[in-house]
Amino acid sequence: MSSNKKYWKNLEELNANSSVIQEIQTKEFTEDLPSKADIREESQDDDSGTTRRDFLKYVGFSTAAATLAACEGPVIRSIPYVFQPERIVPGVAEYYATTMADGFDFSSVLVKAREGRPIKIEWNDKSKVKAASGARVHASVLSLYDTKRLQNPTIDGADVTWKTFDDAVAKKLETVGDKSIVFLTKTLASPSAYKLVEDFKEKYPNTEHVTYDAVSEHSSLEAFKAMYGVRALPNYDFSKAHAIVSVGADILGDWQGGGFDASYSKSRVPQNGKMSKHIQFESNLTTTGANADTRVLAKPSEQIQLVLEIYKQVTGDRSVSSKLSDNLKQQADKAVKHLKKAGSKAVFVTGINDKSAQYLALAINDALSSQIIDVENYRLIRQGNDDKVTQLVEDMNAGKVGALLNVDVDPAYALSNAEQFIKGLKKVECVVSFAMKKNKTASMSKYVAATPHYLEAWGDVQMTKNDYALVQPTIQKIFNTKQFEDCLLKWSGSDQKYYDYVKANFSNYTGGLSWNIALHDGVFEVKNQNVAMANDDAEVDSSSARQMASMLSRKQMKGGDFELTLYTKIAMGDGKNANNPWLQEFPDPITRNTWDNYITISKKDADNLGLENRVTSKGAIDGDVVNLKLGNTTVTNVPVMVQPGQAPGSLGLALGYGQVEGLQEEMKVGVNAYPLYKEFENFQSVSIEKAEGNHEFASLQLQNTMAGRKDIIIETTLAEYVNKGKEEWNPTPVFSKDHVEYPFDSPKVDLWQEFDRSIGHHFNLSIDLNSCTGCGACIIACHSENNVPVVGKAEVRNNRNMHWLRIDRYYSAGDTFQEEKERYETDGTLDHHRSVEVESFDNPQVAFQPVMCQHCNHAPCETVCPVGAIGHGRQGQNQMTYNRCIGTRYCGNNCPYKVRRFNWFRYNKNDEFDYYMNNDLGRMVLNPDVTVRSRGVMEKCSMCIQMTQKSILDAKREGRPVKDDEFQTACTNACDSGALVFGDKNDKSSLVYEKLNDDRKFYLLGYLGVEPNVFYQTKITNTEEV
Amino acid sequence: MSHYEAPIRKPLVTGNKTYHDVTEDIVRPIEGRANKTWWIVFSIALVAFLWGLGCIIYTISTGIGVWGLNNTIEWAWDITNFVWWVGIGHAGTLISAVLLLFRQRWRMAVNRSAEAMTIFAVVQAGLFPIIHMGRPWLAYWVLPIPNQFGSLWVNFNSPLLWDVFAISTYLSVSLVFWYTGLLPDFAMIRDRAKLPFQKKIYGILSFGWSGRAKDWQRFEEVSLVLAGLATPLVLSVHTIVSFDFATSVVPGWHSTIFPPYFVAGAIFSGFAMVQTLLIIMRKVSNLENYITIDHIELMNKVIIVTGGIVGGAYIIEYFIAWYSGSPYEDYTYLSFGAATGPYWWAFWALIFCNMIAPITLWWKKLRRNIMWTFILSIIINIGMWFERFDIIVLCLSKGRTPSTWAMFSPTFVDVGIFIGTIGFFFVLFLLYSRSFPVIAQAEVKSILKLSGDRYKNMRALHGDDVQLYELPKQKPLPDFNKVITDIETEEVDVTPADGELSQGLIYRLGKATEGVSDDLKKLSGVGPVLEQKLNQIGLYTYNQIVKLTDKDILVLDQLIPQFPKNHARFWTGEANLLKRN
User: Fold this and answer.
1) How far is residue B337's CA from residue B357's CA, in Å, rounded to a whole number?
2) Are A1019 and A714 in contact (CB under 8 A)?
3) Does B493 have pLDDT greater than 50?
4) Residue B428 in contact with residue B63, Cβ under 8 Å?
5) What share of chain B is helix, strand, coil (3-state, %, to 5)?
6) Among A830, A849, A865, whose Cβ lies nearest the Cβ of B158?
7) CA–CA separation, A615 vs A608, rounded Å?
8) β-bridge pairing A650-654 and A599-601
9) Is A755 exposed, middle or buried (0-12, 13-18, 19+ CB in 10 A)?
10) What's the confidence (pLDDT) of residue A83?
11) Residue range B80-108: average pLDDT?
12) Whole-number Å distance between alpha carbons of A641 and A621
């Protein structure tokens, strides 16, 4: 509907042919614009072609562009729930029962998940079996969020889809032909996985399954099989023990799967005036030896003789002969007396990796008719077969293996004959590695299948004959991973999911247990099953025992000058956790070193070889390095730690370190000791030579004795405890006022005006030094609950670790702590410094003491803060207000316990500290209930106020009083030995109230009168002789 | 008011100074140009300051972790330096306030610089509590100011908060006291200033001082009131600083002897620093006649007393720690454990520098030896630094739980910041010495008739009741510009060689030989070098000097580079007096 009207400006326009109008129409401006030339006249330099209009255009565009750019903020991708999942309430944690079973650690756990993210691991109280170190179990959640995890399956290093991968491998397997297909797996201990492998064999009959444990219990398994007919490990319940004699068995470590600390601790707490007697013969100083009543130094070769001697004396078998020094003979006699006295309540264990030694140990227990050892409900958590692994390496080299499928194992790193394995690997046409990280074996494999973390997987585990556990995922798979079993199903041509397979199989062997209940509980028991029974009433065949004894007596330690004992650390285990910064920074309970492994050597030998540890000007420890030689194998540049309590002539070295592949740069620490682990023997005879170089240790503790101080750890003997009054062995500190002595907590000698603390909750924490084995599970649990940062080796060396909870380890200056205190009293002022400062290097007494913030009611830290950033809670907590803190660090100086931790740097989102808090994935493990502290503020133990507050609010919502066991902290939850007890002391029925009124109670530095809310129970040693 | 002072008392102003001489001597560094040495020292100080500033910026941007501190030793160089600087800042107030109240006249020559030193030292000290914080940008939270957090308030129980009040009060009172004293001196400079800019600046600085009797009366009153206010501060500041330690539970810190012992130590180190600075300054600025050897000896006596208190305190500390029988006292900074432990060197540095070395001052000869005093003052300051280092680091390093025993080693940042504050201190002091009257000339003038040697000598000659103001009149000063022009014209006309000039001079003044020479060094502004030069020209005796005319002086100025013309004008009079002696 256009109009025909025409508008005009002047008459000329009406004349279509007007030249004027034509000219005007072609020009935008009637008048001439100032040309460039005109402008140039004014400024000669300007040769840009920019006109005014261009200039305006540019200004306009750039302004608009700048405006638009400014509008775009940082994008943080968060995906909201499209549908609110049932039961998931933001801010409320969910708990799932599942099972950690990585081939080395087996434990039923509860997983705490927040908004779908697993953030913490706790013990599953329903579980009866544990074969793991608490520290590793609690730290395992961090491995889920490991940036070094494989994110996709790869073929020749290139990411592929699972379909491509499965097809390629399946096709490859079909072409194997006559050659064998070998599954080289960790100990799966999974009924369904075993069945699956059997199923697979139906399709590929030339399949073989080889179980390989990097740290092997093969000899124990064989010994048990020889005696009881089943390839398994005996179980032990130390809680009932009256006498424990161990020859080189680190029963609080990873010996035979480990996990005995809880039951061991129970027998160590005096009840009705009785506690167990523990005699430990060992060469390395282990936590077990540290906790023993009597610790006797015995080199590996002597340990062998000790087993023979004890066997001889217990069984009365005269045909056995042993060669022992007088001292050891005497000690062996004493041990035997204790064993015999305790009778069926006695137990003998040994850590010698030798079938005959293990067989004799079983025979001794059999002769004692020990109730501590349980051969019926035997453990199935170690299945590794050294013979088969050795055979496999030979077969590979002989070209008999067509396909090798490595499942969560890294033989290229952990086999002592790794070079041969690698050589053989090249002859295997199809090598598949199932791995979470690109470890050494995976990096040599054509096909690498990315496997999920156990928190993303399904499965079942048979821990012991009767005790089972289920594995369930607690988070959607983070990466494009697939578990081994699913692949196997696929390759067998089945469309079934492994979940369905497990569920189906579950009903097969349980015979009608409820899947849902089992899954909820995480554990279930199946009795009277149709599995080969251990021959429990098998009479020990005396002739075979004799044969074993003579085999053992022929075993010799030859070839080198030193007898080396290889062991695993509580932190690192067999080395699977090398990329876990929590565990790397976890201090060894004995040496208190982090981020390292090293040779432990006795002072005597170190002096002879000219090896030493030095203290630098900043107080860190440096050490010499040595080369270790075993046959043709040399391990170079091994740092040396002079270890009190190391048997002269012996050495100790931890396995599991020195990995390179699949690790972050910072985690590539230590030396690889596996090349020395010849024939899976933990005893090796090596030679040692000093090498050039200096090693920097990162140790948490430099002073090893208590310097004669009486108020640090109060300890006494069982006899004193039973026979004498409390004031004799645990005197209350007193203050003199007007020549009258008042107890330290009397109001008469108190500077403070006390207020009524009897209303509401008042939290106290009891730490029993008798039950505490020093395992350190609490340390990791605390890290996990409270977002404690990792600072790295250099900063630990600067004595800036951030552990809120530490476990102090003291060696005695004399043979015992008693002697140390006496020396302090008797030696002159000028002498006693030296005589109590330096630890005894021979065989000192050892004590552990967990120390966290003591939450003093009269806290020295609270009064000195200029800005009042520290307050005292109504419930007894000493509370740090992070955002008020300006960081004067006066509180840290004034803390007598030195438990305050300062944020020297920003530990999160800082490339200098490239640990889990520096990446989005790692930060998923953070507990949203606890602030991540900024730099420049002081932090410390909060007595897990977020946990106690939740318990109070839960009870309030439900309108009921809080139950005693509801009050927990991360450390008490993690402590399954019962050493840590937390609760409300105003609740007269609570366990902590009972502990508070125990005669053994004492306060650390009690004479200070700071009235801590943390107290300790006197350490009691059983020095009883028979 | 009689100007009588017993002749046995040593004169406090020597060099036959008149009132005008005092003015001239004191404004010389301000009106003159800085020499090369000043620029070299100033550049070094500035570089050190900038380096320290860089270290501070690095610390604040990265974190306290760049220092050598750790979980056990959470204070080290930072608080050591803080206490050290605060201690150094103690002499000023003692000299200006306490000695004022005790009518010690010798303070007048040293109080200005001592107070300046106090203020500059407190500025350095004040830096450390701020930069040692984990979050220094929140440092204002230590002030009790209303805030957005409602009832959030500072913790009045904390000794650190007491420090905030103590240090800020001390700084402000010292600053006011110092500035009040400066007013008449600034006015003097203002009145002499030739350039309008300087006149303006010094006019503003002098707050319009007019020199009327009322001004002087108020000035005296304010000084007295401020002295009364400042005197308790001398005791309170370091008492409160000592509370940082004494009220804690750290073995070795928790000590009731700390307040008096810290105050004595502070005065000890403060006087040592005054000695260090003034011994240099009197030389560089030619102030030997005002800061005499007697001043130095008097200050050394203060050092003996306070050093004695400190030494006694050490012995008591050591004894009590041992006598307590408590194992927790075995490793305090004064204990056998410290003497033989890893920090033995720090322990013995303390004992040597603070206890053994000052004993030498009991000998009068050493007490009056300027070089030894200078060396000792530095030793004492090193010792006092070690005292604080030992208290802080040694006591913390072996605390109550042996498992946490640790050691400390400084990083380059720790060292850099410390050096930076020393640089900053000297930058301030050097600027001060060229722009402020470094001696309270108004006060010195007030005692000139009483204690000046010129007047004491006159009294000795003429009796005590002589009218000292009836002095021989001086000729009016020649018009310099004119005379110089004359010489320049002469030069153009005659161009006499140096030899001719000097020959003419000797002709006029009379010949003399080395054999009959007088000590020309007694003339003001003449040192050994100048004496030598005068000798070279042929001037040996006072008789020659007496005959010097203004023109001769201009001739000498031609002959001798950097000839002190201003001094030379008084030589005639001085030589007259000397001749008579």
Assistant:
1) 23
2) yes
3) no
4) no
5) 70, 0, 30
6) A865
7) 20
8) antiparallel
9) exposed
10) 75
11) 86
12) 9
Q: Please give the share of chain B, as a percent, with pLDDT higher than 90.
A: 45
Contact in structure between B135 and A886 (CB atoms under 8 Å): yes
**The residue count for chain B:** 581
The answer to whether residue B77 neighbours chain A at the CB level (below 8 Å) is no
Disruptive mutation site among B66, B138, B344, B401 for chain A (greatest number of A CBs within 10 Å):
B401
At B119, is the pLDDT very low, low, confident or very high (cuts 50, 70, 90)? very high
Question: Residue A680 — φ and ψ, nearest 5°?
Answer: 55, 35
Residue A851: CB atoms within 10 A of its CB come to 22
pLDDT of residue A173: 87
What amino acid occupies position A842? D
pLDDT, residue B491, reads: 41
What does the pLDDT look like over B503-538, one tens digit per residue?
777 777 777 766 777 888 888 888 888 888 888 887
Q: Do A709 and B328 touch (CB under 8 A)?
A: yes
Distance from CA of B418 to the nearest CA of A (A): 18
Give the mutation candidate from B388, B404, B409, B415 for the A interface (greatest A CB count, under 10 A).
B404
Q: Which residue has the tokens 């502990």?
A: A995
Helix (H) / strand (E) containing A263: helix A261-268
Asked if the Cβ–Cβ distance from A890 to B65 is below 8 Å, we say no
Q: Which residues does B119 contact at the CB level (< 8 Å), separation at least 6?
A: B89, B92, B171, B174, B175, B178
- Element (H or E) spanning A413, and its range? helix A411-414
- Could you give the CA distance from residue A336 to residue B580 in angstroms, rounded to a whole number? 113
Distance CA(A911)–CA(A594), nearest Å, equals 21
* CA separation for the pair B371, B102 (Å, rounded): 29
- Counting as low any pLDDT under 50, the low residues of chain A are 532-534, 536
Pairing mode of beta strands A130-131, A106-114:
antiparallel
Q: What is the largest CA-CA distance in chain B?
A: 93
Phi, psi of A152 (to 5 degrees): -150, 155
User: CA angle A240-A243-A249, nearest 5°?
Assistant: 100
ipTM of this complex prediction, to 2 decimal places: 0.86
Q: How many C-beta atoms surround the C-beta of residue B509 within 10 A? A: 20
Give the A:B interface size as CB pairs under 8 Å.
189
Whole-number Å distance between alpha carbons of A299 and A295: 13
Residue A287 burial (C-beta neighbours within 10 Å; 0-12, 13-18, 19+): buried
Of A703, A806, A888, the CB nearest to B160: A888
Residue among B139, B155, B250 whose CB faces A893 most closely: B250
Beta strands in A436-585 (DSSP E): 447-450, 459-462, 467-471, 523-525, 562-567
In this predicted structure, the answer to whether residue B496 has a pLDDT above a threshold of 50 is: no
Amino acid at A912: E
Cα(B238)–Cα(B269) distance, integer angstroms: 12
Q: Give the number of other CB atoms < 10 A from CB of residue A503.
A: 17
Across the beta sheet with A523-525, the strand order is A459-462, A467-471, A523-525
Residue B185: what residue type? D
By Cβ distance, the residue of A703, A829, A865 closest to B402 is A703
**DSSP per residue over A604-667, as a string?**
HHHHHHT--EEE-TTS-EEEEEEEEEETTEEEEEEEEEE-TTPPTTEEEEESS----TT--GGG
A914, two tokens: 């490239």
At residue B301, does pLDDT exceed 90? yes
Distance CA B388, CA B87 (A): 10
Q: How many CA atoms lie within 13 A of A293 on its CB side?
A: 29
CA distance A483 to chain B (A): 44
CB of B19 within 8 Å of any CB in chain A? no
pLDDT tier at B483, thresholds 50, 70, 90: very low
- For the CA atoms of B327, B329, B334, B339, the dihedral, rounded to the nearest 10 degrees, stands at 30
